[in-house]
Write a structure and sequence with these properties.
alpha+beta, 6-stranded mixed beta sheet, 15% helix, 35% strand
């Protein structure tokens, strides 16, 4: 099972890297060089430190690393923990020197 998860993650990363950057959108608020990605969490693995977010508009999945520094907030008063099925906006910065998925700087739970 672990091999299947790892293979899926690698194929997702390689697939998104092969695209012509359709996920780039306007810079995030207050974070120089940051970009945003909106969608629904379709896979979340806290042990491995990553989540996969699917955009309904762009029909693409994007993998983000979640660290202790990732800020998790909500548009409502209560900030729920991240769960599969939630709609989120992810603010991230993609460094050209990084080989893996980008680190999520901020995750805002929409609903």
């Amino acid at each position: 099972m672990r091999l299947v998860s790892t293979t899926l993650l690698v194929s997702l990363v390689m697939g998104t890297a092969g695209c012509s950057v359709p996920w780039v959108s306007p810079a995030g608020e207050g974070t120089p060089g940051a970009q945003e990605w909106q969608g629904q969490i379709v896979q979340l693995d806290r042990d491995q430190g990553y989540m996969v977010v699917r955009s309904s508009e762009r029909l693409l999945d994007y993998v983000f690393l979640i660290t202790l520094e990732t800020e998790i907030t909500s548009k409502s008063r209560v900030s729920p923990p991240l769960e599969r099925g939630q709609w989120v906006t992810v603010v991230y910065r993609r460094e050209s020197s990084d080989l893996g998925p980008p680190v999520a700087l901020r995750v805002v739970v929409i609903r």
